[in-house]
Design a protein that fits this description.
Elements (H helix, E strand, L loop, with lengths): L1 H19 L2 H52 L1 H8 L14 E2 L10 H11 L3 E2 L5 E6 L8 E10 L17 E8 L2 E11 L6 H4 L1 E5 L2 E2 L16 E10 L5 E2 L2 E2 L5 E10 L1 H7 L16 E7 L8 E2 L23 E6 L9 E4 L10 H9 L10 E8 L2 E8 L3 H53 L19 H51 L7 H15 L5 H6 L6 E4 H10 L9 E4 L7 E4 L1 H18 L6 E7 L3 E9 L31 H11 L3 E6 L3 E9 L6
Parallel strand pairs: 1-3, 20-22
Antiparallel strand pairs: 2-3, 3-4, 4-12, 5-6, 5-13, 6-7, 6-8, 7-9, 9-12, 10-11, 13-14, 15-16, 15-18, 17-18, 19-21, 22-23, 23-25, 24-25
Helix pairs in contact: 2-3, 2-8, 7-8, 9-10, 13-14
Length: 710
């Protein structure tokens, strides 16, 4: 279980290390990906906000449109349009009477007549100050009359003289009414009032006296039509301001005249007195035709003709179409009418469709909006003298999608440009930076796997990554550094080979004299034989190695049982033979202490420590050897009186080449003794440590006792 856990933990660490090598590339790519994603998310968010705002605005505008239409239809001009529904295809001329929202018109009063026709907007406009309204009242019992009121421009009206049998010597009206197969014609010359008043201030007032049109000039015995009534009021001011001199109008300047007529139609009056209840307004109202002409004195061209081209019709229900947006429908129905029959059905004019993106259209359609799916339909009632009408306004929220789709399509080019800029920036960094970093990382990783010898550096070349930018300068520095490292490694290899050859030569030359010395000192009682064996072991260890540290670390020791008490007595007794004086051994509490060690290696360890103590002890002081034992361990303490070890070096003195003497190499001290002692102690399963005492330094050698429980 522990092996599996360690394997899994190692795999995870390896994977994390591998992922860390891509961290910079992932960071850059993720940053650009998030930047592009945020642009798209921001675009979608803005579209959703705009859709919600557009829908809210549409609902407000929709309700406002309904209120405007209702207010417009409640106005007398709107009521006139409701009472006289007409299609846009219906020609304006010849005129036919319209049903007024008033019971009748007081045609004798200029102010009342003018207010009635202007407030209802029934006037048909003509060129040159011409206008005319032909209408009937909403109350049939006011009489079967057709009312006509309008304006025209002319010079000062020429009156018809009393007793003159010729009517064409004065300004006159010619009126014609066609209905139900009959034609009524009247001719009405202008006659001024007996008391004209102040003409310069009030203008001319008079009447049009009606005669049945007989088609000739001579009206000697003609009688006036009693029920034909006509009035005219000509203004005092000229229509052209240049024609006024010193605030006095010119005699021949044109002035604007307003007239009102009441035309008696026998067919309409007779229908009122039939036994059946009269139908009002007449069903054939649109089939009636009325023509009014204003003729000048003589045989000149008519000053005004209601059948003239270019007439502009008044407001009608068809004009409401301009207020409807695409997709909106307006239905107007009279209450009490046949079910399903609309008085008027209008649909909003479809605007010219601009090109939209299908993708954006589908996206906008799917964006959620509050209350978007709720039906949009409003209704309003309008009251008129002849009944109530209901208007139904239906909206189409899809028009929001269409209009927003058009705007989004236009703005999509800007979003595309932003994404293209992000992509180009990523591409530039990817090719110019990330790709080069990846190549540098890949080559560095390959170098760490292959550079076991100097030959591995020869394949590492960064010349193609050099440049003047930061990464190029880094590649140049790394390439130069690795070239120097390669040169130094080659020099070190040459030096190691030379050192190895030197050790071979030294070992070869030393082994022969040692063989001769062994012949001379071949008895076990000879103390020199012990040191000759140690010399042979040292030569064998170093012989054939590239460096002393490698030789000591690769040494294999044959650990055996050593009686440490007698061993230390022997070391102290023979110390003078190797130049170590005043070495004193204080025996332990036990006579025989067996430890695990290799005798020659342990002697080398003690000798190296003693020589190190010899160099640092105070002159004339002794080196003390003591032995302390426990059930499992035996500790040899070597103490010398003298200077203490510097705190900075106390943990490093056992490393190879470390010495407290600046010129240790020149004096023959290589910083090797304590390193050898530590290496040998470790191979024998022991320990070595240094400790500063009050009067000097103590080095403790820890060994395992044989049979002590380990």
């Amino acid at each position: 279980m522990n092996v599996s856990s360690n394997t899994i933990s190692g795999s995870i660490d390896t994977s994390l290390t591998w992922l860390a090598s891509f961290r910079l590339r992932v960071l850059f790519r993720t940053a650009f990906f998030l930047l592009a994603l945020s642009t798209l998310v921001m675009t979608v968010y803005v579209l959703q906000e705009e859709k919600q705002r557009s829908y809210d605005n549409y609902q407000q505008s929709f309700a406002k449109t309904k209120d405007q239409i209702a207010a417009q239809l409640r106005h007398p001009s709107g009521q006139l349009a409701l009472l006289n529904p007409s299609d846009a295809a219906t020609p304006t001329t010849p005129l036919h009477p319209v049903l007024l929202p008033f019971s009748a018109i007081d045609f004798d009063d200029q102010s009342k007549v003018r207010n009635a026709v202007e407030i209802t907007g029934c006037l048909v406009q003509y060129s040159h100050y011409g206008s005319l309204c032909v209408a009937i009242g909403s109350n049939p019992w006011a009489g079967g009359f057709i009312y006509a009121a309008g304006t025209f421009a002319s010079t000062a009206l020429v009156p018809h003289a009393l007793g003159d049998k010729y009517l064409d010597t004065a300004h006159r009206l010619r009126v014609e009414v066609k209905m139900r197969g009959q034609t009524y014609r009247w001719i009405a010359p202008f006659e001024p009032l007996p008391n004209p008043g102040n003409l310069q201030r009030e203008g001319t007032r008079g009447r049009f006296t009606g005669y049945v049109d007989i088609g000739s000039r001579d009206y000697t015995s003609a009688r006036t039509v009693r029920d034909f009534r006509g009035w005219v009021w000509q203004g005092a001011s000229c229509t052209n301001a240049l024609a006024t001199v010193d605030a006095t109008p010119s005699e021949d300047c044109e002035r604007k005249s307003f007239f009102s007529l009441r035309l008696p139609v026998d067919v309409l009056r007779d229908a009122l007195f039939q036994k059946e209840k009269p139908v009002w307004p007449p069903t054939d109202l649109n089939d009636m035709q009325v023509r009014v002409e204003v003729l000048p004195p003589g045989d000149g061209i008519a000053l005004f003709d209601s059948n003239a081209e270019g007439a502009v019709a008044p407001f009608s229900l068809g004009d409401l179409r301009a207020q409807l947006l695409p997709g909106e429908t307006l239905r107007i129905r009279k209450n009490g009418a046949a079910t399903g029959k609309d008085l008027m059905l209008l649909r909003g004019i479809e605007a010219a469709t601009e090109e939209t993106s299908p993708l954006l259209t589908r996206l906008i359609r799917r964006l959620p909006v509050d209350t978007y799916d709720a039906p949009i339909e409003l209704a309003q009632d309008v009251t008129t003298p002849l009944g109530n009408y209901t208007i139904h306004l239906t909206g189409d929220a899809r028009s929001v999608n269409k209009s927003l789709g058009v705007v989004a399509t236009r703005l999509s080019w800007f979003v595309g440009a932003m994404l293209l800029a992000v992509a180009l920036a990523w591409l530039v960094i990817e090719v110019g930076v990330i790709r080069r970093i990846a190549r540098l990382t890949r080559r560095s990783s390959q170098l760490s796997k292959t550079v076991k010898t100097t030959a591995g550096l020869g394949h590492f070349d960064l010349a193609d990554l050099r440049g003047s930018d930061e990464l190029g300068i880094l590649a140049t520095c790394l390439n130069d550094l690795l070239r120097r490292v390669k040169e130094d490694a080659e020099r070190e290899q040459i030096r190691a080979e030379q050192e190895k050859d030197m050790w071979h030569a030294v070992g070869h030359e030393i082994m022969s004299p040692l063989q001769s010395l062994m012949v001379l000192h071949n008895t076990e009682q000879d103390p020199s034989l012990r040191y000759i064996h140690r010399m042979q072991q040292a030569v064998r260890i170093l012989y054939g190695s590239a460096s002393p540290s490698e030789a000591f670390e690769s040494t294999t020791l044959a650990v055996q049982t050593v009686e440490i008490n007698s061993f230390l007595h022997n070391i102290a007794a023979n110390s003078a033979s190797v130049g170590l004086s005043s070495v004193q051994y204080v025996g332990g509490s036990e006579d025989s202490v067996l430890v695990r060690a290799e005798e020659y290696a342990l002697e080398d360890v003690v000798t190296h420590v003693l020589r190190n103590a010899e160099r640092h002890r105070a002159p004339g002081s002794a080196i003390a050897l003591t032995l302390q034992t426990t059930e499992t361990d035996a500790t040899v303490t070597i103490h010398n009186t003298g200077p203490q070890i510097a705190p900075a070096l106390i943990d490093q003195i056992f490393e190879y080449g470390v010495s407290d003497q600046a010129d240790s190499g020149a004096n023959g001290n290589r910083g090797q003794g304590l390193f050898v002692a530590k290496t040998y102690m470790a191979k024998m399963g022991g320990t070595i440590a240094a400790r500063n005492e009050g009067d000097g330094v103590s080095l403790m050698l820890g060994l395992q006792r044989v049979g002590g429980g380990r």
